[in-house]
Amino acid sequence: MPIYKYSVLKGDPQSGSLSPDSQPHYLINVAANGTTYQVAVNIESTDGSQVLYFISQTFTPPDAGALDALAAGMTQLTVQANPAIDYVRSTVNGQPIVTLDEMQLLPLPGQSASSNLQNAVIQFLNQAIADDNGTIYAFGSQYTDGTGIHDIHMNQGNPPGEYEKDNGIWQDGLLLFELPASATWAAIFIAFQTESWTTDNNGNPE
After folding, report:
1. By CB atoms within 10 Å of each CB, which of 117, 146, 160, 165 scores lowest?
2. Per-residue pLDDT for 15 more than 80?
3. pLDDT tens, 162-196?
């Protein structure tokens, strides 16, 4: 079953902070049309599903025009319709948007370099805030009350168990920053070691 209301949130990044509870998330406040939304980004894993991540400072979106054309705020996406994201199926200039080989394993808390992902989120967020026209695009699952978005990570290939119900195609999470001042895009891809990158048309492991 697909994740709840797969969507993209587009807006003006305002600030960020670590989640106040024990959940390992970095929370970003995003303004759009007079409303402040929250983006919850996984930056650690404590359940054994260790985090994989890839950071691109010179990213090329599959369809930048579709992103620019989006209205500010929350937009629910349908399967395979631009600009929906699929780590396994999306391509840029004929090449995969991201590959498993590019992903790095995030060390567990307390180990060397365990804050690399958090540091990258903060770095790009600060760049976007400093850029007068900086924009954030967060792909994932809407909060049930519509005030934010989470599951900013791969949402397919989960093995049988707790997260199998989230499997689907064209519903992967992505944190994307448009930085017009430097004419660049930055992207952060997040997945979990337990997820397969070989999936069927329902997003289940083959």
Report:
1. 160
2. yes
3. 999 999 999 999 999 999 999 999 999 999 999 99
Residue 80's pLDDT is what? 78
User: In the predicted model, is pLDDT for residue 108 greater than 80?
Assistant: no
190 backbone dihedrals φ, ψ, rounded to 5°: -135, 135
The answer on pLDDT for 97 being more than 60 is: yes
Backbone torsions φ then ψ of 95, nearest 5 degrees: -110, 150
User: Nearest-CA neighbor of 12 among 188, 178, 183?
Assistant: 178
The backbone region for 94, taken as left when phi is positive above 0, alpha when psi lies in -120 to 50, beta otherwise, is left
Q: Is the pLDDT of residue 27 over 70?
A: yes
Six-digit token string for 170: 């064209």
- Lookup result for tokens 């979106």: 61
Q: What is the DSSP string of the chain?
A: -PPTTEEEEEEEEEEEEE-SSSS-EEEEEEEETTEEEEEEEE----SS--EEEEEESS---TTHHHHHHSPSEEEE--TT-TT---TTT-EETTEES--GGG-EEPPPTTSTTTTHHHHHHHHHHHHHHHSTT-EEEEEEEE-TTSSEEE--S--S-PPSSTTGGG--SS---EEEEEEGGGTEEEEEEEEETTS-S-B-TTS-B-
Determine if the peptide bond prior to 13 is cis (ω within 30°).
Answer: no
